[in-house]
Amino acid sequence: MLHYITNIRMNFKTRSRVFLILLFACLLCQSCGEPSEILINYEDIDGFVLIEKDLAFTMGCQENLGCICVHRDVIPPFAAILSPYYIGKYEVRNDEFAFFVSDSGYKDSTFWSIDGWEYIVETHRTRPANWIEGDDPWQDCPRSNTPDRPINNISWYEAEAYCSWLSRETGDNYALPTEAQWERAARGPDPGRVFTYGNEHDSTKYNNMGYSRKLYPVGRFTEDVSVDGCFDMAGNLLEFCSDWYDVEIYQQYKDVEPVYNPSGPANNLSGARSVRGLINLFHYDWEIEKQIQTITRANLDPDTIENMQGFRVTINI
Questions:
Q1: I need a surface site. Which of 97, 177, 252, 280 has the fewest CB within 10 A?
Q2: Which distant-in-sequence residues (6+ apart) come within 8 Å of 175 by Cβ?
């Protein structure tokens, strides 16, 4: 039985990271016969940023601000209003996702949606793709083979299940970010940034994985940071959002603006989920700039597995 130090006040945004550290300690020590005491420096555990100001913003492409409207799915711009929320400062790491795997995450159907569990049963998955048994299950994973790199090679369903598990374990409302939450965190308050790090393209400030063919530990590119303090929203991986994708949804929003907490269409006619933070598949700056704008949208089928996709989480409050 472990004895924890509980007389230190933890603020809301640190509780989940503390939980993960304690859970990992439990998994390591569950067979120990002697009680242990875990000392934690809570000041070092700060994995979320709070978005509680400037929650009314203009979502979508505004050419007068320097954005490039590359596709009709980002027009017309519309007024959105969000409720306060926390969002992950970084993409979810391998060692964080490993807690879910170790806690029977792929064996307990209650963490999964109906479609997600059907996917797991059909594919006979027991862990992320390319993971193996052992203390370092990610060691053979292409491009993400260390604990501090972001989890990749998972489907949207797996990211959704992780959030469900984390919600049950902590009592907080974890979820994948909506597109609106992701864009607000990436752009900052109106008028917003064209790129997460500023309004001028600078390829030295982020990891262009499509060109570098490398995936770096979270936060390694210290200048790829948004106004609110989120890292790697221009580089590293594509990131799953909770919304169903609809190419025409912005026009629907425009007709009823302002839209409170936009969360995508109510149906799944496209069969695809939205993703943000696109990687670049081009070599020329003028092409790359189109890809990595904070407004750029894309989509993937929820059962798709690629080594270029991952996620960060939100806590809805």
A1: 252
A2: 163, 167, 242, 313, 314, 315, 316
Domain end marker among 112, 145, 170: 170
Number of Cβ within 10 Å of residue 157's Cβ equals 24
Chain-centroid distance, C-alpha 304: 16
Q: What is the C-alpha separation between 23 and 177, in angstroms, rounded?
A: 24
- Which runs of consecutive H residues, i.e. helices, occur in the chain? 15-29, 94-102, 114-123, 156-170, 179-187, 209-212, 249-256, 285-291
CB atoms under 10 Å from CB of 122, counted, come to 9
Residues 99 and 197 in one domain: no
- Specify the 3-state DSSP secondary structure of 203: helix
Q: What is the pLDDT of residue 6?
A: 25
SS3 96: helix
Do 259 and 299 lie in one domain? The reply is yes
Cα(204)–Cα(221) distance, integer angstroms: 9
Q: Dihedrals φ, ψ of 315, to 5°?
A: -120, 115
- The gap from C-alpha 34 to its chain's centroid, in whole angstroms, comes to 38
Q: Which domain holds residue 35?
A: 3-45+92-170
Question: Residue 143 in contact with residue 153, Cβ under 8 Å?
Answer: no
User: How much is the pTM?
Assistant: 0.86
Q: 175 has which bridge partners?
A: 314
Strand partners, 304: none
Token couple for 61: 């492409």
Task: Tell me the per-residue pLDDT of 109-166, one tens digit each, with 9 for 90 and over.
Answer: 999 999 999 999 999 999 999 999 999 999 999 899 999 999 999 999 999 999 999 9
